[in-house]
# Entry
Amino acid sequence: MSVGAADAQDWTAGAIALTIPSVPPGTRCSTIAEQFKTSPEKPAIPVMEGERLLGLVDRGRFLMQFASQFGRELYEKKPVVALMDPHPLVVDHTLDVSDLSARVTAERPEALQVGFVVAGPGPLIRIGTGLALMRAVASRMTQTLATLQTAQEDLVQAERLASLGGLVAGVAHEINTPVGTALTAVTALREQLDGFRSLHASGRLTRSELERFLAGVDLGTDFVFANVRRAAELVASFKQVAVDRTSEQERQFHLVAYLQDVLNSLRPRLRRTPHTVELVGPEELEIVSYPGALSQILTNFITNALMHAFEEDTKGHIRIEVRSPSEPERHGEVELSVSDDGVGINPALIKRVFEPFVTSRRGSGGTGLGLHIVYNLVTARLGGRISVESTPGQGTRFVIRFPTGLAVGAPMTDAVNAAAAATNSISAKQTSSAA
# Structure
């Protein structure tokens, strides 16, 4: 007898079932009594004729009848069918334990005592017990409760990291095509090489065959190289975004180029919509800031627009603009705006849009945390400001302004250390305030 493999992820009837050898219908009850005596761990024994299930012999009921007055004398020479249950509860091995529990309660409550039959995969017949079922349900409830408690504690953090999961999915989706194409080409090259070796070994290799082989190899390697290079470029583009998203370190970077990398990571999701995204700004603009925070901010803005801004079956446009404010008092700042031509924000929500759990899509996938996270990143991490303006039926525009990390007029290479020192001071003050 063996217990089916069950891990924390497998909550099916098959995972809690016991494999117990069956007996044919002609087996004497005395033989069954001996089996129960020598194998006290057996809860029940299936009775089968070939691969056809005839019934189930439950230990408790069988021994109670067999041990009753004159029971042995009455049944010991009779076939097991005399004391078996011909209509036991039979469930598929893939049935979830929660559904199994509901079915037992509704159809056969006595199955908690006498057991039930777990069928499959294939002709396999196993036995489930009420004790194993209750343990599985209790374990699952305990695990679910722990998961819910963890989710409560980490809800905001989970919302921030969810976009990182989307980034990983984007990487996998984007590189799948060039890698798959390259693999196909390599497979074809391998087949050509095998054919070439056969011709060479047989001595039937001609000059035309050699030239054809070399031409095929030349074309195939070019094809493989182009696709592998494309995959490498995609990985390089996504890699920095992923590192920044998890490290939260300050560094020097070209802002517009970096935002384009973030948009590349969102490309798989954007392709599933009819909407267009435009990024404009001075490509030469370099700043010292927190790219991971900016990646999260832009991702949340785009996600928020896709979820809330556009009505179904409409084609919308999202514009991302980077510029340095012209006002003298704002030198050393950069302005990043994200606007859309969607439905706008409900005036009743506009003043509360950065508060946690404020959403117009409650129950439809909206948590109300995206813009709250953006607000915290802009004000606490970037040391900036954020504003929003919206006209119902015309669209919404978010504007954030934050320091470039450079002294006004200072060369980038000379200002990095000063900017880092200033930021460390700001971070220390923010940490003190947060505490």
User: Anything to note?
Assistant: The longest helix spans residues 155-202. Residues 2-151 form a domain with the CBS-domain fold (CATH 3.10.580.10). The chain has three domains: 2-151, 155-242, 248-430.
